[in-house]
Amino acid sequence: MESLGVYLKSRRDRVTPAEIGLRTYGTSRRVPGLRREELAQLAGVSAGYYTRLEQGLAETASQQVLDALARALRLDDVETAHLHNLARRSSLPKMSDPGPEEPHPRVLALLENLGETVPALVFGRRGDVLAWNHGGHSLMAEHLDFDAPGDPERRPSLPRMFFLDPLTRELHRNRAELAPIHVAYLRLTAGRYPTDARLAALIGELTMRSDEFATLWATGDVADCTVGAMRLRHPTVGAVSVDYQVWLQPDSPDHRLEIYTPKDPGSADAVKILTGFDR
């Protein structure tokens, strides 16, 4: 899993002196972004302390220091939250196996109330599909067994499907746009749950088996994933364009209900076919 120091360095490398108005007087630079000393000065901390922080030698960092670093690095709200999550890892217990997830009854009730005309899936914290309706299954993974989410041993994993399953890779016409979002959200999740051994194993597996994932993971980017667009190349109904939207419940933030709505009349007709397909 990612450390605070690694993340700080990746963000420091991303900011150029020109962006923040630092003069370099034409001197050659051996780093792609800010020097440690420059970032420390901008954040109002000593260069020695920042160096220890980046090297993992400092015990901890206060909220004020982290916020100052976030401002100097021009982090957005999601990136700042990730920075704080990484900083508290040193006080947490070692990795543990939390076991299979079970979808919250309230999320399942929402899924049921949507009926079958709106394709929808329920994801757990690691991107496992905990439940889906027939429309969501037909739209996103009709090549898999409909009952698979109910069995923790056969439960589909969205990250594995997206990066390792050839049929899912072929499904997404805009995968070049979606892939960085998948990786950035998984990194955000890893910061929220730094002791989840299953999550760490998933990231390790994807890094080893997918060059695309490994390249994107190395960027260090983090992002939330709540709305967006998918352009699909569906094997049954052809081209389909949908918007996805995530519904979150305050008492079960680990579980995300993702719904898909068509973007145009042709896609709406395709979704109607799929929501009544084989039933």
From TrEMBL:
Residues 33-81 form the HTH cro/C1-type domain. InterPro entries: Cro/C1-type_HTH, Lambda_DNA-bd_dom_sf, MLTR_LBD. It holds the Pfam family MLTR_LBD. One of its GO terms (molecular function) is DNA binding. Coiled coil: none annotated. This is Transcriptional regulator. It comes from Amycolatopsis keratiniphila subsp. keratiniphila.
